[in-house]
Design a protein that fits this description.
This protein is mainly α. The protein is 56% helix and 6% strand. The chain has eight helices and four strands; from the N terminus they run E-H-E-H-H-E-E-H-H-H-H-H. The chain has a two-stranded antiparallel ribbon. A two-stranded antiparallel ribbon has the order 3-4. The chain starts with a strand and ends with a helix.
Length: 140
């Protein structure tokens, strides 16, 4: 899964033109290059808003919850875990695979967070794990 840059945002376009002149290669979520971009970008004004815009999956890779909502970012998933009803949470975590864990592993390449969430005993614990992940990535 590749996250494409939102080249229409002028601040991001200016930042990328200085750091990667071709701007043709997509940046893989969780890659070293993405982490490098974000570490530099976070020091600039309006960074949090632009980072959220850039780290958004497309419709095809969005997480579809049983309540009908679609999740495109890790922050959105954190919010979903906080507000999701218990029976809906149990629907996604029951069975052979924890849906939240699978989405983190398959779409975001977050192996450790996926493993921790699959082992979480409660919904609040899973939300806390995701909150720590978002803070580590600079999204919260």
């Amino acid at each position: 899964m590749f996250i494409k840059h939102n080249y229409s945002h002028p601040l991001l376009r200016k930042f990328l033109s200085r750091h990667e002149p071709q701007n043709v290669r997509p940046v893989r979520a969780g890659s070293a290059r993405m982490r490098q971009y974000l570490s530099v970008w976070r020091r600039q004004p309006e960074a949090a808003r632009v980072i959220r815009e850039c780290q958004r999956v497309d419709e095809e890779n969005a997480f579809k919850a049983i309540d009908g909502s679609a999740v495109y970012t890790l922050v959105d998933l954190h919010e979903l875990l906080r507000r999701l009803e218990t029976e809906h949470y149990e629907h996604h975590t029951g069975g052979t695979c924890n849906d939240f864990s699978c989405w983190l592993r398959d779409v975001w390449n977050e192996e450790i967070a996926a493993e921790l969430i699959s082992r979480a005993a409660a919904q609040a614990e899973a939300a806390a794990i995701l909150e720590r992940l978002c803070r580590r990535r600079g999204e919260l």
